[in-house]
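Researcher: Good morning. I'm working through a list of sequences from a screen, and I'd like to move beyond sequence-only analysis. For each chain I'm collecting a predicted structure so we can compare shapes side by side. This is the next one on the list. No need for commentary yet; just the structure.
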Amino acid sequence: MFSDRQKPKAMNEIGGQPNRIEKNTKIKGDIISEADFRIDGKLDGNVKTSGKVVIGKDGYIHGKVECVNADIEGSFNGELLV
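Model: Good morning. Structure tokens for this chain:
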């Protein structure tokens, strides 16, 4: 009934909680994280993460993005390293 065995950690538990930049939010600067990112607002800068980057339909990034997986529905202008 009770076990001392630990369950494997989900990806977001390893890298932290997913981050989100909401619509109508504008950020100027660089972001470095180990967690996933969803961009629904505007980012003028670079993103470096060991997680996934999602640019929503209203999202926009101008800069360099380094990640393990990318899903781009919105706009992107820059360099993408996956």
